[in-house]
Amino acid sequence: MNGRTRDLILAGGGLASCLIALRVAARHPEARIGLVETGPVLGGNHTWSFHAGDLDASQHAFLAPLVQHRWPEQQVRFPRYARRLDAGYFSITDESLRRHMARQDLLEVMTDSAVTALGPDFVEIDNGKRLQGNAVIDARGPGATQGMTLGFQKFLGREVKTAEAHGVDCPVIMDATVSQADGYRFVYLLPFDATTLLIEDTRYSDGAALSEAELAAAIDAYAADRGWHIAETLREERGVLPILLAGDFERFWPPGDAVARAGLRAGLFHPTTGYSLPQAMALADAIAEHWPMDGAALAAFTRDHARRFWSETRFFRLLNRMLFRAGRPELRYRVLERFYTLSEPLITNFYAAKLKLRDKARILVGKPPVPVTEAIPLVREDPFIRREQ
Question: CA–CA separation, 161 vs 287, rounded Å?
């Protein structure tokens, strides 16, 4: 495609870009698609997980070739409550994503190519090359945060081989039986086989600073407490994800912004859990269904898609404000501990960011896990935004 105008150029080679490229190519094989990635490979160093109820049957079928691990159950652990959930759980690794992308002969992939400028119909990269496209999507990860009031989900994960079988038979989404530090803390476990385990220490914190040394020591201590001897560390991943407490969409994404966005750059992530794969899949589906579009039309389309998602997930921002701003940080775990006593269909709807009105009422009624006097001032979002920014 060198020297030719591409139909679509995706800036950023992460999950959101790859899913859009795959979905558009599958439905429109004539489309000429290019991906531009700053790093040496697509996908970076990540594991993307999702719950069975997050996707419909066609989306599950589409992603099946990318899924590296799947489990029929998951569990949570809290100081006064533990539960196994009959909900499937799936993980895509960076390696499985890259393998699948490498089989797509019609996609043009440019790695080690930092984007220096872009517009609705061009991308410039650091070697001076200018790529022309009928449409461009900016999917380079988190951008400016104007109009957003944030908490943060910080994590360090270590994939390890244990000397003996670790005994974890399904994902542990949250193990909050650990000491609470830096806000709400839990350990996340993914058992890849009998002796291979991802151990991730996660903090829901007010600040974005990530102490890798502290989290690494916490992982070591957690493994030792459970009698796991780590024979080998296979890989590590780390991140600081936004947790949206309040947002002014018009400031975050001004109407005059002429470039389409996807992924975290578009604010498309679950406001409370930080999971982004379901939202990435939904946008990829929507773009493929309405393809082709030029740059201006695609910018308007992706902005409208993201604005609807923000509107539909307003309730989650309220829950986040209660989690982060009501009560003491070391007692935040009680909010989640109470939540996981609710019905499994409600929990499934929560994961999928598709709560029904009765679900919202059920979450809020009963004995509140945070002080009512501190929660009431957080109900309205607009005053909260003005006060915080």
Answer: 40
Cα 182 from Cα 202, distance rounded (Å): 10
- Strand pairing category for 8-11 and 136-138: parallel
Instruction: Name the domain boundary from 312, 327, 342.
Output: 312
With contact defined as beta carbons under 8 Å apart, do 244 and 264 qualify? no
Q: Residues 6 or more apart from 222 whose CB is under 8 A from it?
A: 178, 187, 199, 201
Amino acid at 362: R
Task: For tokens 């604005």, name the residue.
Answer: 307
- What is the C-alpha separation between 368 and 144, in angstroms, rounded? 35
Question: How far lies 164's CA from each of 168, 216, 220, in Å?
Answer: 12, 21, 16
262 and 237, same domain (yes or no) = no
| ∠ CA 273-208-185, rounded to 5° | 50
Give the CATH number of the domain where residue 227 resides. Answer: 3.30.70
DSSP letter at 264 equals G
Question: pTM of this prediction?
Answer: 0.92
Count of helix runs (H) and strand runs (E) in the chain: 13, 18
Each residue of 196-223: pLDDT tens digit?
Answer: 999 999 999 988 888 899 999 999 999 9
Read off the pLDDT of residues 4-17 as tens digits, 9 standing for 90 and up: 789 999 999 999 99
Q: Are residues 140 and 108 in the same domain?
A: yes
What 3-state DSSP class applies to 45?
coil
HEC sequence for 149-170? EEEEEEEEEEEEEECCCCCCCC
Quote the radius of gyration of the chain (alpha carbons, Å): 21
Q: Would residue 327 count as lying in a domain?
A: yes
Residue ranges for the chain with pLDDT beneath 50: 1-2, 372, 388-389
